[in-house]
Design brief:
205 residues, alpha/beta, Rossmann fold, 7-stranded mixed sheet, 31% strand
Length: 205
Amino acid sequence: MSTAPLLALESVAKVYRRGLLDPTPAFRLDVDGRFERPQIIGVMGPNGAGKTTLFEMIAGSNAPSAGRVLVAGQDIQRVRYRQRDRLAIHYHQSYQVRRFAKTKPAFMLEPADSAYPLVHLFDEPQFNAQDGYIGFMLDFFRRLRGEGRLVFVCLHPTAAFQLEILREICERFLFVSGGRAETLADFEALATNADVRRYLGDLSP
């Protein structure tokens, strides 16, 4: 049985440059982190900060400019295209699975070591506040964690109940802003972080 963390982001960077004549970075995201065990991770940050780019790199649909994304010890960029969602799967908004560009022939890539996604990335899921749907989704996230999966839930909070969702279910947080992704140990650390307070205001009860 593998002893590798469920997810390791090793000096991962994504850089988009202005153009051939102006190589100045127009966008840069740097992230390091290890996620050893099943958890539910809350992800937040301003629009355009790179949250979806981060999810795309974890799922293998967007190649990092530098560094490696390892899912259970496998470099996601070395895994066969049709099998990458056996390691990490990216659900964008209304649970549409993101596609990716093929840059190498499949025969040059290795098979996934998992038959079912180990990392689940929910990118701004649409929560219906009626008819118990929120409770259903929270139970679903918890069930995935109980089955040994790592769950990321990215929200751009526009209502108080969305913050309450994050407070209730998330054990750890990533805040993406200013070209980096910062790990925060719990909701209290999130609420007292200066960058988060500038983004959302005072989160004190």
